[in-house]
Amino acid sequence: MHGPVSAAWLLVALCAATGAYCLLRMRSGVENQRRAAGGEALMGFGMAAMAVPATVFRPPEWAWPLYAAVFGAAALRALWVARRDPHHLHHVVGTAAMIYMSLVMAAAPAVTGSHHHDHTATGIPLVTGGLLLYFGGYVLLSGARLVPTHGDAQAPAAPRARWGDRPELVRACRLSMGIGMVAMLLTV
């Protein structure tokens, strides 16, 4: 990834914190939470690793195909699980985006010690544009789901859930990963 170094470090911190929270969610008493949390933790940590500025650490050439293979396996798993749980279709798109970014970074020529892909002559590739539209819409929808509605204030108080099982924290986690994906796609 390329772009301002301070923004890259913020993205690394956001994605790593999200991945860590998802790891903690894997201890949830709710089966659906545990099932989704592992894939989301992998996404968070994978995005954090990809976002490390190339001026600090430049991955070896074999790292990008390795990322693509790891996320390819995660995509197959998400596709398998999506047969029963349609929420995992979003995980399929997310892992496909990670595969795509890994392959773009593997093909990108190194310029002045960092990975840089020139979009000025060709414009934004169709796949990148499609992924930006998808994740931009996902971010807007996820953000709207976090806004309390008038009906929420009148609902009876539910028993206090463990912090890892609270739906608003899970939504915030997914929102931050969506924002991170948009930021990464903009820098590809």
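The above is record 1. Record 2 follows with the same two-line structure.
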Amino acid sequence: MRYIMPGFVDAHVHIESSMLVPSEFARLATCHGTVATVSDPHEIANVLGAEGIRYMIENGKKVPFKFFFGAPSCVPSTAFETAGSVLDAPAVEQLLASDDIHYLSEVMNYPGVINSDSDLMAKIKAAQKYGKPIDGHAPAVTGDALQKYVGAGITTDHECYDIAGALEKINLGMKILIREGSAAQNFDDLIPLLASHPDKIMFCSDDKHPDELAKNHIDHLVKRAIEKGYDVMDVLKAASLNAVKHYKLNVGLLQPGDDADFIVVDELRNPEARQTYIKGELVAENGRSNIHYTETETPNCFKAHFIHSEDLFVSDKGKRIKVIECVDNQLITKNLTVEPNVENGALVSDVERDILKIVVVNRYQPTRPAVAFIKGFGLKRGALASSVAHDSHNIVAVGVTDSDILHAVNLLIEHGGGVTAYCNTQMVVVPLPVAGLMSNEDGFEVAEAYENANALAHHLGSTLYAPFMTLAFMALLVIPELKISDQGLFDVKQFGITSLYEDTLA
């Protein structure tokens, strides 16, 4: 027996993180029963501004898939990093006035809301003026600060990582998006909410790299929830209905007069998408896409100059240093202080203690890189580098030696962006010529190339589940505790640049 059910909706995703342009994202996602996404073009907006958002919208229109783009609220995310563009309140209001823009994207500058930043509050008022939902981003925000944040009109959050935090937000009226991406994976911790609050929950991926998108999408969360014994209808609410209703999406729900957006499955309790239809068109069948590859232009903004060995030198000052400690499958980090490894008066990586040098290179103008140290990557040889580095997308790299870092970074500058795993005997490069974020090649081929880069990263010793995705978030200054931008080491709790050295002012 076969059944039809509504197609799946990713309630919050940055298409750019798939390293695929929207038309290619659609080719892979439809194979898993996805028919629509609530898409935040925040990444390309940080590189190319409104021009980049228009590119995403127009590219998405080339294929039979339902992209619902938002107006990014925080470009740049903070004043402590260099981005390629600025979207102020008038620019955001102009976007929100368009029928192609469906909501105000995640308000990640939560201190700005709490402290009533005038430009940010004007963006929120503009969204309310046009009757468009406002997405949130409030990790670890609680108490009076959270009440003020929600009171501003912000309606969702995808940054919860425990039940207590999620329930506090639900009790204030927010909807909770359970996220399972390539780096942040909160499904197991939050899925019990589906039983107690089925109308308040949505599923999302947030950031999903191409190798994983080739394997699964929202269908993976659906199957896992059903396997855990949750009611099938509640699961389908989280996977489609709740997002459609909350964001007022023109996505069919098998109601009279709706678009024919649905999937065909063999079993309700194991809903493998045998066929995916969008507006009545068969777009995928038995794991194969019927959407054809579409060539696209490659807008970019890459002005970095090659770096040199002296750019990575850090002097020993006889003090302990602050170290970022990354946490596998999470975006949060810890703030450590350690005795540094010193050679010839310079601070260098310490492979035995897994304390490696991390650098951020400004890609928009030639300046000296920011250099710090990080624990948790596990590399024994070589370096990893990426021009996908949330949110301003400067180049971020981590490595065992300065030479490895130097070669990896310069390789990406030569290609105008990408990701690479590098050592002196092996390297894999995935070029990303579209804004330094996305490939213009066939999505399935990009997925294979990225899988090869990931495999080499693990071969070089990385113990992280998704080393490149984790690396990309080490520059995200709005997630606690310690991060790094092109301007230096950043203390998220103090919300400012901090010195590498303990007990030293920045």
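The mean pLDDT is 95.
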